[in-house]
Amino acid sequence: MGKIGLFYGSNTGNTEFIAFQIKEAYEKLDPGSVDVFNIGASSPEQILKYTYLIFGIPTWNTGELQDDWAAFWPKLGEMNFTGKKIAIFGLGDQNGYGFNFLDAAGMLADEVMKQGAELLGLWETNTYEFAESKANVEDHFLSLGIDQDGQSGMTPARITKWVKRIKTEFGI
Fold first, then answer.
1. pTM above 0.70?
2. Is there a contact between 154 and 127 (Cβ–Cβ < 8 Å)?
3. Collapsing DSSP states into helix, strand and coil, what is residue 98?
């Protein structure tokens, strides 16, 4: 078992693709450290085995949760994340859905913090153009922001920088 559990939900495969890019980038720094799971096939017990967690969630349609996360959501509200360090990456389309860019990541961040988690991996908003986001707090997102529709060329550098940041913030 790795040190970090990475759980994602993906309808189109984009979030799954990013999850494995994050695993690959992290394992360049610390081989064998990340286990990857689809949240749709995961249990609360499986998630809670890990002290260090990465959650991946796309914002679907106009600010909605992705299907697997929507199904898992009631279980999430019953979990105790006290003592857990959690980083989130969110996918969205800032051009097509600029009024709810990364909303699902913001909703997920709020929920895990409400359940006692320490949220890490905040990300600067200065290279994005959006109108509103539930993930936006002052000049940061509560997650890494990935826009594969409008800024896919920036994704590899963002992942590399974020992975180094969360490795330091996790302290492992």
1. yes
2. yes
3. coil
